[in-house]
Structure formats: structure tokens, C-alpha cells
Amino acid sequence: MASAFVSYAHENARIVASVVDRLAEAGYSVWYDREIRASSTWTDEIARAIDECKIFIVFLSIEAVGSLFVQSEIEYAFRRQKKIIPVYLDPIENLPPGLALGLNKVQGVVGSGSASIAKKLCVCLAQNNIPKSSQASLKGFLACAFVFIAIVSALSFAAYRYENEIKSFLQAEQKEGKPIGAIALVKTKYAPAEPIEIRLDKAAQKGAKGGFVCEIIEVDADKREPIERRETKSAGEKIVLRASGIAGEFEIRAYAKNGGALLATKRFTVVRSASNSYKIATDKTTYNANEKISIKLSGVKGDSIDKRITIGVWRIWSSSSEPIETKIVDKKNQSVTFLAPKESGRYEIRIYNNAEILTSATLTAKTQINIRNFRR
């Protein structure tokens, strides 16, 4: 069953055929007789096609208006109460009384060529909810699939080419930026926020006549931004960096300050159980409110950048991340005294080995205590 029936005079067969082909390309199923003649007789096939169509399209021209065959098809469509779309190929001022009665109130389509007419008819068919054929939908789907496959293939090829170009670029950069010297470290494992003393060998120092820059980066980080960075004018001057506050694998890189050339690299790891991590010891584990808490530190060294550490008391399971009390002390003083909090509960004493950063990233040791309050 075709969605649309086309009525026309054989003198207009060429433009009608072009319009019908364009409608078919747009997905609409159209029935029309390519061999129609003005003298043809009415057939059951034509009547059945009009009965089954959803919309009736008639191409009106001077020849069509004078065709009894076209008039008969229009009258039959009116009797079957079909939706009619007239297409005016010629300016027709006076329609025969029978046609004028039915078509004067119907908005028609006027076009100067097959492409224009087909475009306007597609709009009319869409407005009247005329469905497209399943075959056309399949063709549309296959066309979209083909386009999608073509795009994916093109992108894959572009990605492959881009990846190879990036690899070549990085290999060239690595070759040009090959370190000329080495960095000497006292050890390869450090505690969180522990100071690291940097020593460059003679080869690296020769490449840094205008000074150099040392920085620490995380090896497996997505963003290779420096965690710590220090500059110096003298190549022979000692540089002290602070290790990261989190465990992991890191790399120290030394660059020439003037030209940015890579001079030396050295990898190290940050671990929680490093040999010089601080430890906290309290005289007991349970205290009364406002009782003095005596704290002893071990593993303390006086070679930190700022020579100070931070000790604080935090309440466990509290919604607040702020400490109850903190003290900044010199590392040479290994005895610290706190007053126990007033509220009962479980608390934690924490040590940070840099007074300027009070976050868990620089936590180096902690211990728990209990506070009890006898007030009723």
C-alpha cells in the first residue's frame, strides 16, 4: 500500500516522474501510472490504489484540467474523503465547476521546478503525518551506520597517526634532554615531609653556570606539577627540599636556570615506616578532664627546614577537622605538655613535621588517648 496517490496528465509526465523520484528518495511510498493516457479507461487497480492511499496528490496544469481521466480520479478521491494536495504546474484561473467546488478551499503547492515542488510536498506530507516506507528507513539507518563507521575509522586513523607523532616527538625530546649529571641523596626512602638534602655532581654543576632549579614531582601523577621547588644562584650551594606528605614514588629533577636544560634526575620513595619517623609516647592512655598530658617525642632530628614541628590534639569522629589545641615547638625540646580536653571521649595526638602545613598530608605520627569527666 502506497502512502500517496499521484494523479496527472501524460503531457506532464517528465516533471511528475522527477518529483515522484525525489519523494521516494525522501522515504515516501508513491503510487502513480507512468503510462497514463488521456484516453485511458478507468480500472479497478487505480480505484484500489486511491482507496488504500493516505493522501491524494494531483498535478494541475492546462492539460490536466482538460483531462476527463484526471477529473474522474479527483471526484473519486472526494467521494472517498481523501486528503487532497493540488500541485499547480500552470497558473490556472478558472477551474471547471466540478473541480472548483472541491479544490478552491484547499491550499495547494506552487513550484517552479521538481526540486522545489518535492521539497514543499515533503513538508505537506510531514504535516499530515504521512509515514515513510520501512525500506527508506532501513536505507537511512544503513546510511547513518556507514557514515558512523567512516567517522570512527577516520578518528582511529587520526589517533593512531597522532600517537605515533607524539611518540616520535617525546623520543626526540628525551634524547635532547638527556641528563648530563647526577644527583646524590643520603638515602632513597624518606618519611612524609622529611627534609631531603640535594647534592649535584661536577658534571651537573658545569651545566648550571647561571644557577639551577630543583623540583620534586610525583612519578605516576596525571598532572606533572612540582610538589616542591627551590632555586639557587650558586651551583655548589646545598639545596634542601621537603618530601611529599603522602607515600609514593617521586623524582627530583635539576634544571639549568638560564636555559632550562635538564641536568640530573633521581628517584626516591616516601614511606610511612621510614627509619627516622617521629614517635609519640604518653605517660598513660586515660586522663581526667583538664589533667596534664605529658608527651615525649622520639626520632626527632634538628635538620628540618624550619626547625619546628606541630603537635595537636584532635577529637576522633568529630565533624570538625580543627584541632582542640596545638603547639609549635623546637625539635630539640622533646617534652611537650597539654591539658586534657574538658569533654569525655576518644582523642588523638598528632605530630606534623612542618609548622606551616596543618593537614593530614604532613602527618608523621599519632597516638590515641581517652578522656573521662566525672561531673554529673
Description:
This protein is an alpha/beta fold and 376 residues long. The protein folds into 4 domains: 4-132, 3-Layer(aba) Sandwich (Rossmann fold), CATH 3.40.50; 145-176; 183-270, Immunoglobulin-like (Sandwich); 279-372, Sandwich (Immunoglobulin-like). 28% of the residues lie in helices and 31% in strands. The strands form 5 sheets. A 5-stranded parallel beta sheet has the order 2-1-3-4-5, with helices on both faces. A 5-stranded mixed beta sheet has the order 7-13-12-9-10. Strands 15-21-20-17-18 form a 5-stranded mixed beta sheet, with no helix packed on it. The chain is elongated, with a radius of gyration of 45 Å. The chain starts with a strand and ends with a strand. Residues 35-40, 169-176 and 355-362 have low confidence and may be disordered.
Summarize the structure.
This protein has 376 residues and is of the alpha/beta class.
